[in-house]
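Predict structure. Input: U3 small nucleolar RNA-associated protein 14 A, 361 residues.
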Amino acid sequence: GEKLVLSELLQPIRPRSALSSVKKELTRVKQKKAVELPLSKEEAKRVVLQNRRAEQLVFPLKQEIATVVPLEQAASAWKARTPLEQEIFGLLRKTQQPITDPLLTPEETASLQAMSLEEARQRRAELQKARVVQSYYEAKARREKKIKSKKYHRVLKKSKRRKALKEFELLHQSDPEAALAKLEELEQLRMQERMSLKHQNKGKWARSRAIMAKYDLEARKAMQEQLAKNKELMQKVRVELPEEEPGDVPEEDLTSVTVPTIPAGASGANPWMLGKPSSPAEEPEVQEGLGDVAVPGAAESKEEMSEEEMSEEEALLQDFAQKRHTRQQRAGSPGGQGADETEALSELPEGSPILPVCAEE
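Output follows.
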């Protein structure tokens, strides 16, 4: 092979000469560009005036014109290099998918070809009308949003509520299942209101309104609206059950009708003691006091019982009317009025309530 020379191996070890610094300076001068000569005064004035008269200055003044390469040319020049890119392009070619996104899909191009000129104009007019209507409603919404009148918003809420009620009635007539789903949604809102208690005037805003309600009528109305909203949401949704016909009631229900029991110390002239006892827990005690006495007429209807009570009330009222007539005859003497009242009260049976007497009587 080639022979090694000792001088070549020892060449980098030699001390650096004084010309190395000069070489570096020369290389720096070569890399630097030559400075252009300054313009003359006339040319400089012309450039300054031109810049002053220009409407807009963009720096740097000498810009390179950017060349825009078309997308199709760039896509055609680009090639798949990695295995993943090659696999993706292979799948696209197999399924005949376009590599670049076209302006129209094949379905849209087919529909355009099948559509006549009149149909295209009609479709265009429909789209224009839809855009006009949409812009009208957007402008109306922006205009309504700027209105700060509380009365206007209150009237708007009431109109929306009436509209919602009418829609629900129509929905109930047309689709009962959808109306039932709407009722379930209202029940869900009611549950949320019961859990959160949002409209009970206990928040920070409600407390500040409560302070101002003493002086501000609008604040008072706002609080009342909050409470009305709470009451509306807390109302339970009631569904009316179908009425049962009287013929469908079983015989056991007729026999199990509770008959009012008469206490032992009650007099026959007091109709108020014929009602039911005040509490259901007192029924067994009364029955024990009476013994195993069978009450006659346990299967009587409610209409006959009401007639009996009315007859006893009429008898008692007639008795009171006679006593009142006698008191009015004795009313000639002023001292006899208090005695007549005490006598009338003493004649009433024990435990019977006192009827209120009108001023005319």
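The chain has a mean pLDDT of 70.
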